[in-house]
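User: Predict the full complex structure for these chains.
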Amino acid sequence: MFTKNKEESISGLGEVALIAKIRHWLGAISPNSPQGMGDDCAVVDRPKGLKQILTTDSLSYDQHFDGSISAHDAGAKLIKRNLSDIAAMGGRPGEALLNLLCGSDLRTDWLAAFFEGISHACREYELPIVGGDTSTLPNGQFTAVLSLTGYLTKPPLLRKDAQAGDTLYVTGTLGGSLLKKHHNFEPRLNEGQWLAQSMACSALMDITDGLAKDLGEIIPDECVAYLELSKIPLSDAAHQCAKASGRPAMEHAFCDGEDYELLLAVKKETQLEVFERQWRQKFPGTPLSQIGQLRKGQSKVPYIDSKTQEALPWIKGFEHLINQ
Amino acid sequence: MFTKNKEESISGLGEVALIAKIRHWLGAISPNSPQGMGDDCAVVDRPKGLKQILTTDSLSYDQHFDGSISAHDAGAKLIKRNLSDIAAMGGRPGEALLNLLCGSDLRTDWLAAFFEGISHACREYELPIVGGDTSTLPNGQFTAVLSLTGYLTKPPLLRKDAQAGDTLYVTGTLGGSLLKKHHNFEPRLNEGQWLAQSMACSALMDITDGLAKDLGEIIPDECVAYLELSKIPLSDAAHQCAKASGRPAMEHAFCDGEDYELLLAVKKETQLEVFERQWRQKFPGTPLSQIGQLRKGQSKVPYIDSKTQEALPWIKGFEHLINQ
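Assistant: Here is the predicted structure of the two-chain assembly.
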């Protein structure tokens, strides 16, 4: 079942191709987004017009965290990264199911602190954990999987409904999350819910794999994104990382993963000044940056520097499963 | 975070104690059954009287399957063992979320066959997979986690509502599942739904950790189970295992895990002959065995041989996380 021959293993595929294959293998039992895969959550119709959303995500030792963050912060991160997917639909959290998979050599006091972090985050966001399961992995292994229900009170904000002419925004600042933010962030639940009820937004997602990769998700067919690089909100951490890596801070903002910020398109008929003023009043602590616009056009690289009119070099974010 | 000192690790706890600790650590954010942990599914009230059920379970290489079963059967097993939890509430399946966690050295053709098994089982039980996630584990590792929604059209059949005087039944035959049945079983969905609408049943669960362990779950406080050993439906595989192990076939029926049969208590006011006749008409292919009765009483070992009036020696089923 395992092989050292890369051609025969999934290591040769990369995450995007692997997911495409899985969709193909599943066939008709895997409905398309919004009812199925392809967005931050699936949207399922329930009786009496209730729209439920469903999502799942995992947190593995050595993959999503290492010994440099505390057990408490790792536990809180598991909850918050899943809530970020609920936020990215403009939804509200419902209930959680938790799977714990670990080696039996896991320290009990470490696990207690991990659950303290879970419990703390769940209280903060009013998320009950209603079920779960434990199972054994080989020594030295730890993975936790969270599955979440949530619900919508407004039509869902999908990735795929943006149009040419819409304006692109991001919340917060981008890049260098590995220094701290990847476990020290707030899921943008209130912001997402406000966007859902404002009706100004045509598309919404959270930035988890880096702007470079995620932006491609909301660009419609036969459109390109014209970006004003001077407006991209570089984080202090992006600048710090740039000093260490020798690469531009802008590249860190585009290509580092785990920002957990919102990326949104605002409908072209919206009065942007009014929209931005309302945002500032409602969320004075959450920066909102207008980073560019969607326009008709075709380009091999769909991100254009609106100043130079040249294609941007950053098109890949963080991909799992590559060349390990 | 890991330790070789058993006293400091979860290996010293065993699964039951670990889950008790997790409940303690989670505190108020973990509601009690039926709204939370403690039964085969959590039961969550939705608007307009809809009762949703939620459950999750995993399947790990070297833990729940090995190289002796095909990738196709492993995939089908993941679906069916989760559906068995839906059956154990008398519920109907809704949608599934799938997490795939594996080493990047996993063979692509093995994974394709695994998804063929998933897809086949999902078509058979009309279960759409609406979302999921992939993540990397170290080479040689494979775990899949499935989370399920379902719903009830009748009041849920819980583990905890049995009373003294109720009669105990099991479906199918027990023991020796490791030879084949652990991946070659049908979740008892139709049987569970029929039991829910029959109103004869006071408690229901599926037998996954062995009758010895699971029976304890449905015995009320200050009750014991009087069992007629001659009525325990020993599988052919239990007899085969007994020959190989030198232990009694009855011990295999009690202590082997993964039977995926239903264990139920039938209310004392029920006309058992009528109930059993209806069952045989409805499910001619599914044996139903009356194995004993719940009676008032206290005993250190709550399982009594009704012939000898002596305590039975088998009280432990399959426990994860012990002494590995």
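Residues 319-324 of chain B have pLDDT under 50 and may be disordered.
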